[in-house]
Write a structure and sequence with these properties.
Elements (H helix, E strand, L loop, with lengths): L9 H21 L8 E2 L7 E2 L24 E3 L19 E16 L2 E8 L8 E4 L3 E8 L10 E2 L19 E7 L4 E6 L5 H6 L3 E7 L9 E10 L9 E3 L3 H5 L5 E4 L12 E4 L3 E10 L4 E5 L4 E5 L6 E5 L1 E4 L3 E8 L4 E7 L3 H5 L3 E7 L20
Parallel strand pairs: 3-4, 4-7, 5-13, 6-11, 12-16, 15-23
Antiparallel strand pairs: 1-2, 4-5, 7-9, 8-10, 10-11, 12-14, 16-21, 17-20, 17-22, 18-19, 18-21, 22-23
The structure holds copper (II) ion (CU).
Copper (II) ion binds next to loops.
């Protein structure tokens, strides 16, 4: 009887596998991991750097990190409503940042003629972007509006501690709760409601981003935008008009009726598009609230010069499509070289053209026909 591996002797497979393991261990133990191994110039912002492992865990060993919290300057945290960001902090000192965020349940448009009872942070989907500096001490107050029907809370992925703050902030309608945390690690992090049933609270729109800038700040760019993807589960199918109810079974089945950016079909289309100039350096803070679907984020006709993989410290360069897991983030940076309307999509492409995951970035400015020409010929083609 043939074994399942066909004609290859099992012993050879084992020997080959052992050799690969030995090689991998050798590379891990003895491979050169010091210093950049390659840099190259390749046009604007296309510097190629090989990333080195870089642990920034609890990198709080500056003198400023030992300033007693009571002595820190108190700053009110700004909120950035998508697609607008909180501007860059431009701050070179540690602060005590006070943030207030209000939970509101409200009916809003999910698509043209389609209404939905969203549960929101700050009255919008996504909730507002928060922006702090690595090492900041944040006192966070969550407020649940008295008109709410449900308890809510918040789990910020930038928090190191029980539930990301979820237990501390669990509140009924008409309550508020406060807790504090230090932003131990830089990066871009999702926050979301984590009240049972968690999936339902997230599916109703309760998520947003908190950016923890590195201490030295981020390189300046011309324009920054804030985009969060989410999947929605309605009783009616895509486009079915009227007030749509949440469909729990559909959510369990991961059968999204809608996949949208910034909480609404068409949130960044037409008059609501993102407008830039040719030559602008652009930074997109990207989140994916889920609850279920990973995003294959792509800008049609553009290549990302740089992506912060999963919102962390690892950089990738010259990227066509970046994966944003549910409950995660990424940052995409690029320069638009020629004018045009650039469609931003989830490249799981039926989501873009049939479920709403499409937005537009419109770049105006001079053409550059060395980079791109419009159609130069259209004529009949008649092969014999
Ligand atoms: Cu909630």
């Amino acid at each position: 009887m043939r074994n399942k591996l066909g004609n290859i002797p099992l012993s050879l497979i084992i020997v080959t596998a052992a050799a690969f393991v030995a090689m991998a261990v050798g590379v891990a133990l003895f491979g050169d991991r010091s210093g950049p191994t390659a840099t190259a110039e390749a046009g604007h912002a296309h510097e190629i750097t090989v990333n080195q492992p870089q642990l920034q865990h609890v990198a709080l060993n500056d003198p400023e990190d030992s300033i007693p919290i009571a002595d820190l300057p108190v700053i009110k945290g700004e909120l950035g409503f998508a697609p607008n960001v909180v501007p860059a902090l431009n701050r070179d000192y540690r602060a005590h940042v006070e943030v207030e965020l209000e939970v509101i349940e409200e009916v809003m448009e999910l698509a043209d003629g389609v209404e939905y009872m969203f549960w929101t942070f700050g009255g919008t989907v996504p909730g507002p972007m928060l922006r702090v500096r690595h090492g900041d001490y944040i006192t966070f107050t969550l407020q649940n509006h008295p008109s709410s029907m449900m308890p809510h809370n918040i789990d910020l992925h930038a928090v190191s501690g029980q539930g990301g703050g979820a237990e501390a902030t669990l509140i009924s309608p008409g309550q508020q709760a406060t807790f504090s945390f230090t932003a131990l690690q830089p990066g871009v992090y999702i926050y979301h409601c984590a009240t049972a049933p968690v999936g339902m609270h997230i599916a109703n729109g309760m998520y947003g981003l908190i950016v923890v800038e590195p201490k030295e700040g981020l390189p300046p760019v011309d324009k920054e935008f804030y985009i969060v993807q989410g999947d929605f589960y309605t009783k009616g199918d895509f486009g079915e008009r009227g007030l749509q109810e949440f469909d729990m079974q559909r959510a369990i089945n991961e059968d999204a009726a809608y996949v949208v950016f910034n909480g609404q079909v068409g949130s960044m289309v037409g008059d609501n598009a993102l407008f830039v100039d040719v030559g602008d350096t652009i930074r997109l803070f990207l989140g994916n609230g889920g609850p279920n679907l990973s995003s294959s984020f792509h800008v049609i006709g553009e290549i990302f010069d740089e992506v912060w993989v999963e919102g962390g410290t690892l950089k990738n360069y010259n990227v066509q499509t970046t994966m944003i897991p549910a409950g995660a983030a990424a940052v995409a940076e690029f320069t638009v070289d020629v004018p045009g309307t650039y469609n931003m999509v989830d490249h799981a492409i039926f989501r873009a053209f049939n479920k709403g995951a499409i937005g537009q970035l419109v770049a105006t400015g001079p053409k550059n026909e060395d980079i791109f020409t419009e159609r130069t010929d259209l004529s009949p083609y008649n092969p014999e």
